[in-house]
Amino acid sequence: MTLGEKLRYLREVEGTLRGLGRELSQLEVCRLIEKELGKSISQSYLSQIESGARPHLTNSTRMLLARFFKVHPGYLVDDPEGFQNELMSDVGALEDKLDLWLVGGAERFRRDPELHHALLSVARHSDSRRCIILIGAILENPGLAERLMEVLKPSSTNGRRRS
C-alpha cells in the first residue's frame, strides 16, 4: 500500500469513527489538525501526498499526521514490494489494525444498527483488544452472556437466544 493510499484510508476510517458516515475531506483533516493539535498542514500538501506527487513526508509532518490519526509514525510510509501487513508483531500496530478491521466490519454491517454501533464502540475503545478478549471470556462462562443481555439490553432479548 502506498503512502497516499494509506492517507485516503485513514481519512475514511477517521470520518467513520467521528460518526460522519463518510470519509473526512482533506480540508476537514487540515482544519481538525489545526483545531485539535494547534499545528497546520495545507490541503494542497495532503493532495500532493495522496496523489503520489510528493512521495515522502518530512518527519514533522509524519509525526503530526500520526498523532492526528492515532497510528504509529512508521505506518506512514510506502510499504515495500511484497510487504505482508499480517505479519506485524508490534502490539500498538496490532491494536491499530484491529481497530481498522472493526471499523471495516461495522461498515459491512451498516444495515444492522445494533451490530454496527457495537463494532464501532469496540473500535473507539482505547484497548479494543481487551474488549474482544473480555467478550471471549464472557462467552466461555455458561449463561453469562444471556444474563448480561437481560440486564443490559432487556428489549433486545425478546425471545431471541444469544450465544
Provide a descriptive summary of the structure in words.
The chain is mostly helical and 163 residues long. The protein folds into two domains: 3-83, 434 Repressor (Amino-terminal Domain) (Orthogonal Bundle), CATH 1.10.260; 91-157, no CATH class. The chain is 61% helix and 0% strand. The longest helix has 18 residues, at 91-108. The radius of gyration is 19 Å and the shape is elongated.
Keywords for this entry:
2 domains; disordered C terminus; 163 residues; 434 Repressor (Amino-terminal Domain); mainly alpha
Q: What is the residue-mean pLDDT, rounded to a whole number?
A: 81
* Count, helices: 8
Summarize the biggest pleated sheet. none
Query: Which structural class do you get from the secondary structure elements?
Result: mainly alpha
Uncertain ranges: 159-163
Give me the CATH fold name of the largest domain: 434 Repressor (Amino-terminal Domain)
Termini separation comes to 38 Å
Question: Would you list the SSEs in sequence order as H and E?
Answer: HHHHHHHH
Q: Could you name the CATH homologous superfamily of the largest domain? A: lambda repressor-like DNA-binding domains
Round the Cα radius of gyration to an integer and report it: 19 Å
Please give the domain count.
Answer: 2
Number of strands: 0
Helix content: 55-70%
